[in-house]
Amino acid sequence: MAQVSSIPEEQASLPLSASKSILLRISKFNPEYDKSSKFMEFTITYKKWTTVLEAILDVKKHFDHSVAVRYSCRQASCGSCGMLINGKPRLACFTKISELDSDVVTVEPMNNFPIIRDLTVRFEKLFESHQKIKPYLIRNDTELESDEREFLQSPKELEQYIQFANCIKCGLCNSACPTMATDSSFVGPQALAQAYRYVADSRDKGKDTRLNIVDDSHGIWRCHFAGSCSQVCPKGVDPAMGIQFLRGYLLGFRS
Amino acid sequence: MKESTIMKIHYGTALASVGLVAVHILMRLTTGFADSLEYENVIANYRSVPYVIMLELILILLSVHGFNGLRVIMLELKQGRVYEKAVSYGCVVAMIGLIGYGSRTIIITNMGMV
């Protein structure tokens, strides 16, 4: 019922069929040939529900098919279409042009990642850091052993880590992180949040192993708690909070 | 040494320094700030053993905290195995050097050699 009542309000602000136009500025850069990036500008018509990804695909279809952009699910599940939209790391498929409240939309590749071309970046370092913290349950036994019972968990135990399990590895947090901008060896907020996700999981027995991994000269202690990682996460994960909780384990405040 | 141990020392030295420097500043205020910096008063302070112990502690705490802070900043600025080792060992050597030089000043003044 709430949805039905909200539709007339939306129609009042902008008719569903109305089209407006914006100037879409797309960063073009090929590290093999270009010394610096340049912007291509396109005038795009959009409707209230048009996303930035749809606008970019519109450019590819009608103006310049060479624009390099990575995307897949178009519903903020795969984490492929992360980019800087008007200077802020966002998912292109999850950002409506109408909500940007600007006549000019500038899209650039994410910061702190090597650029492949245009808007696509390399994720090797992100996945490497993610794998490094052992993103799986570490136990000596399995659910299939003994009397074949699943590892039970209370709702309270689930609450400890469930928001961190929403990470889609889009890399927006790493892109927003000021430490990652200068420290290329920093493990990053994504991996640290995932380390907390498993450390806080009552079924996991690998806490000491993971704490040893993040307790490095380029590990958890290099976080300055700027909090920008939490601000940009499209899935509501709070990596900054996870990092503080992890520090609590290492400082002896949590066990 | 593990990074968590280093950072525990870093936070501990910061807290202890705040306390001791506060005592140090309060003692400056007991005689009036300008008077406390007169040559005779400064030398007299160095002759007081409890005060000298406090100065030595402040020197050690701030040196440890400061040089670790410098190490952290330099590690974030640039990366590389050789560079990082040079920064870490360089900071330890500089810290020992500063503590040694400061301690020498405190000791010779306390013993009346100035």
Kindly report how far apart the N and C termini of chain A lie: 46 Å
Strand proportion of chain B? under 5%
Q: What is the CATH homology-level superfamily of the largest domain in chain A?
A: Alpha-helical ferredoxin
Element-level helix/strand string of chain B: HHHHH
Total count of domains of chain B: 1
Strand segment tally of chain A: 7
What overall form of chain A do the CA principal axes indicate? elongated
Helix content of chain A: 25-40%
Q: Work out the number of β strands of chain B.
A: 0
Main structural class of chain B? mainly alpha
- Portion in helices of chain B: over 70%
Total of DSSP H or I helical runs spanning 4+ residues of chain B: 5
Strand order of the largest sheet of chain A: 2-1-5-3-4
Q: Which second-level CATH architecture of chain B applies?
A: Up-down Bundle
CATH architectural name of the largest domain in chain A: Orthogonal Bundle
Count interface residues per chain for the largest interface: A-B, 15 and 12 residues
Q: Regarding CATH, which class of the largest domain in chain A?
A: Mainly Alpha
* Secondary-structure-derived class of chain A: alpha+beta
Strand content of chain A: 5-15%
Please write the CATH class name of chain B.
Answer: Mainly Alpha
Overall pLDDT score of chain A: 91
